[in-house]
Design brief:
Layout: H1 12-19, H2 26-34, H3 43-54, H4 57-61, H5 65-69, H6 76-99, H7 106-117, E1 124-130, E2 136-144, H8 154-163, E3 168-174, H9 184-198, E4 203-210, E5 215-217
Parallel strand pairs: 3-4
Antiparallel strand pairs: 1-2, 1-3, 4-5
Length: 224
């Protein structure tokens, strides 16, 4: 049955307008983005198929162009639209970090980092430099590849912190394998960075590891 033939209370758009976006399922939200279905399938049916195929919204969002466009009913236009939506969300969250105290907005920090790092196929290490009011000054990709003490240079991080006149910093990196568990190398690296930055009076507030749909905070787990 086509969506226009559904009861109004069950149609995704009407449901959103009446009850808010949070009331919709992942498939219903995705259906609004898709707008139309295809022969024999409503937009909701198509959305459910996409989620089943990819396993989650996160994996759908991080799919590369070729993988995404191989799905019946998808194509370059839909792929570019989806990437634009993701980038707008990331920029909006970035604005929130610049305008407010990040310590008062832990979920915004997590969401921003997930949108920034989840899609990376290799390990990427980033730093969010903060001012004295814990507002983001800049976010920089510092290093990429396998993270070890020899591949992440504390002196380079210190130089960038001084360049931005930062008072504090939050680190984050991703685990493409999926598990957001810190290795011994992650722990050792964090302590080395913390000691190096302490010499120039820059605080390390946290280090996040982004896995597949999971995020680990060093601060919340007593690791920093």
């Amino acid at each position: 049955m086509a969506i226009p033939d559904w009861p109004k209370s069950e149609r995704p758009r009407e449901k959103l307008l009446t009850n808010g976006a949070a009331s919709l399922s992942d498939a219903e939200l995705l259906a609004i983005f898709l707008r139309t279905g295809m022969a024999g399938k409503s937009a909701v049916d198509l959305a459910r198929g996409l989620l089943k195929n990819f396993g989650s919204l996160t994996r759908l969002f991080t799919a590369d162009q070729d993988t995404f466009c191989q799905i019946p009913g998808m194509g370059v236009a839909k792929y570019t639209q989806l990437q634009a939506v993701i980038e707008m969300a990331r920029r909006a969250l970035g604005d929130e970090l610049k305008n407010g105290d990040v310590l008062h907005s832990p979920e915004i920090v997590r969401s921003y980092l997930r949108l920034t790092l989840n899609y990376k196929e290799h390990e990427v290490f980033i730093a969010i430099f903060l001012d004295t009011k814990n507002r983001a000054i800049a976010t920089e990709e510092m290093f990429n590849g396998t993270l070890t003490q020899t591949s992440v240079y504390p002196r380079e991080v210190v130089k960038r912190a001084l360049y931005h006149n930062a008072a504090a910093v939050i680190f984050a990196h991703n685990h493409p394998s999926g598990a957001a568990e810190p290795s011994q190398a992650d722990k050792t690296l964090t302590q080395s960075l913390k000691k190096a930055l302490a010499l120039v009076e820059v605080k390390v507030l946290d280090h996040f590891i982004i896995g597949n749909g999971t995020t680990l905070s060093f601060a919340e787990n007593g690791l920093i």
